[in-house]
Amino acid sequence: MIRIYTCTPVVFGGGADFFARDSGLLCRGLQSIGVDSRAVMPGASAPEDEKDLIRTPYLNLETPAWWKDQQLDAVVLYAWGRPKFRKVAKAVQEAGIFLILNLDSGGPVSPLSGLTDWMRAQWIFSGSGRSFLSYLRFVKLTLRGITLGLLATDPMRSRHLKCGNIIAPVSPASAEHFRRLCHRYGGDELSTRIEVIPHPVETSFRYSGVMKHRQITCVGRWNDSLQKRSELLMHVIDTLLARDHQVTAVIVGRSTPEMEIWHRLLEPDIQKRVIIAGIADRKELAILLDQSQVFYSPSAYESFGIAAAEALCSGCSVVAEQALTMPAFDWFISEMSGQLIRTARHTEHADSLLDELDQWQKGKRDARLISTIWCERLHADHVAQKIVDLFSN
Fold first, then answer.
1. What percent of the chain lies above the pLDDT cut of 70?
2. Residue 280, C-beta contacts closer than 8 angstroms, at least 6 positions apart
3. pLDDT tier at 5, thresholds 50, 70, 90
4. Are 233 and 298 in contact (CB under 8 A)?
5. Helix, strand, or coil here: 301?
6. pTM score > 0.70 for this model?
7. Is 236:353 a contact under the CB 8 Å cutoff?
8. Residue 293 is inside which H or E element, if any?
9. pLDDT tops 80 at residue 107
10. Cα–Cα distance measured from residue 107 to residue 61, given in angstroms and rounded to the nearest whole number
11. How far apart, in whole angstroms, are the C-alpha atoms of residue 281 and residue 219?
């Protein structure tokens, strides 16, 4: 039996939530296709840890002998390609184990991957000039990247990536950025190791065949206003629901005080069509996405967008802003499965959502087809099989 472990070198909880996404879910996907798999993580054992989790002191992760003792065929390392974890990658390599490096990143992580794209990304990460503090963040990020980044971060990241047999960004657009970067680090020999391996999605996210409602669902950590842009979300919903008197908007995730005040002050007709759902468990979210036509992301940046991926598997189409820092979304809409918005103006976001709802009404969106295509690409068992195929070849 093939023996493939996943590993994250960061301490997380080891319960059901961990095994519902990323390295934990990939472990489950590998198990489902007959691979002997467990997840490895540093830190002390906790009561909620599931039996398939191996806790070990961090020093062991940097020790080739410890990895060799596990008698593994391959390891999938979820370490973002970060320089600080290069010793973990090196230890796996020196143990003679086939190593796949998961890169959960948008791609332009260095000026060497393309200076213009990298600076555009720093601008977005800093807040796109929406405040004086945003300008200061941009200057800080830029100066650090072209000094410490080029002198220290890039050489160490290069050593990390060179340990991998497969270097695995999570979307095609991100792969292009990393392909350019790896070519700068190690020429064709390194850049040809790039393979897209998306984050896995739980198989419970699948279109069931129910009648979908004229409903838009949004999922996010709304207290992270810089990334998730809750203020934009509120403006978009105000505009959208004033123009369309049938559509319902469901907001999943812990709301902010500002969102609660906004909701209380909405006109009664609109308020009843805006549902602040709060934190939903996985089963509730799957049911909600199964019933919705559109998933909307107001985010400024996402390395992948797992909620959008879950929505696609549930037969939703996706609407988001087209941005360098949203690399997976060009892929997500590629199968008649959504559309992207060219600006951050709330009126244009509302226009695109209305147009997407019209696509459903005109029969130009097929929930079953969207679900079938994306389940085959993103469900945990399919992602796991791609990893086994890469290892076997």
1. 100
2. 252, 288
3. very high
4. yes
5. coil
6. yes
7. yes
8. strand 292-297
9. no
10. 26
11. 12
